[in-house]
Amino acid sequence: MGGTQESGTEGIRGGKDGRGGLGNVLSGVAVAVGFVLFLGAFAWGALVYQPYTVPTDSMMPTVNPGDRVLAQRIDGGEVRRGDVVVFTDSTWSDSPMVKRVVGIGGDTVKCCGAGGRLTVNGKELDEPYIEHPKPEAADAGTGTGTGASTGTGTGLGVASDTPFEVTVPEGNLFLLGDRRSASLDSRAHLQEAGQGTVARSAVHARVDALAWPSMAMLERPGTYASLPGGTSQPGPLRLQLAAVLAGAALVVLGAAYGPVVRVLGRGRRREAAGAR
Q: pLDDT > 70: what percent of the chain?
């Protein structure tokens, strides 16, 4: 009888200190599910996203030189107006470049309309993301307002120092940098075939987020939403990050269950022994 009693007591203690029972099973399941979520989200992210380092200042203030960005691998057919894309065009550079799409096939892109704004198919664009030369700084610099001066400010001045009007060929894109005074973009290639446009097939990724040194999602500009085709849908990055965090939390909580229960169990046994 003594042996049976001792065995029963040990079984109860085993359940209490986390070495058995439903709690131990659930903690194991939590750890397993957490690992699947954590590693699965990382693998998914590696398949869908590619990191790039932006070397120039042509996309300031949206992307600063040296920033590390995460770009979703996409087909050129998925590109919409307002997207910040990574592309390679041998007539521009042998290296990947990052610019913003302001016009797609069939669009008439013009600068500048009333108030110095860019227009697409006659619609004036509100572009809070671009950086212009400050008017007073430009006057003090060269007197031409070409942006040769160093003073800059977001939302000031005109949308482009170079006037132009382009009808984008079907299957092509018109691309501009956000720092219009210092960006070599479609405007620098207006005299070439295609009037500075780039084939959709040249695009291989769309920037969804800044990864380093700051972390931030790139929002789709609302000014393009009313144009035919609207703006692109955000990629799955937020979902992937949520899965990584949820997985990490499950692993930590599941792994901590056993030690926590054992510590609590020892405390209860000491209290019980003291009461006797």
A: 77
Q: What is the pLDDT of residues 15-34, one digit of tens each?
A: 444 455 787 888 889 899 99
Q: What is the pLDDT of residues 209-224, one digit of tens each?
A: 999 998 999 999 999 9
> 175 near 100, Cβ under 8 Å?
yes
Please answer whether residues 197 and 173 qualify as being in contact, where contact means their C-beta atoms are separated by less than 8 angstroms: yes
Tell me if the domain spanning 47-231 has CATH number 2.10.109.10. yes
Contact 23, 261 (CB under 8 A): yes
Give the Cα separation of 144 and 161 in Å (integer): 9
Phi, psi of 7 (to 5 degrees): -65, -40
Amino acid at 30: A
From the list 132, 110, 144, the residue with the least C-alpha distance to 181 is 132
The contacts of residue 16 (CB under 8 Å, 6+ apart) are 261, 265, 268
* Spatial contact of 21 and 265, defined as CB atoms under 8 Å apart: no
The per-residue pLDDT for range 110-149, each reduced to its tens digit, is: 998 778 899 999 999 999 999 755 444 333 333 333 333 3
**Positive or negative torsion for Cα 120, 126, 183, 63:** negative
List active site positions: 58, 99
> Exposed, middle or buried: residue 219 (CB in 10 Å: 0-12, 13-18, 19+)?
exposed
Residues 228-246 have pLDDT tens digits of 999 999 999 999 999 999 9
Helix-, strand-, coil-residue percentages of the chain, each rounded to 5? 40, 20, 40
- Give the whole-angstrom CA distance, residue 128 versus residue 114: 16
Nearest to 73 by CA among 194, 204, 195: 204
Q: Which residue has the tokens 């000491």?
A: 270
Where in the chain are the domains? 47-231, 236-271
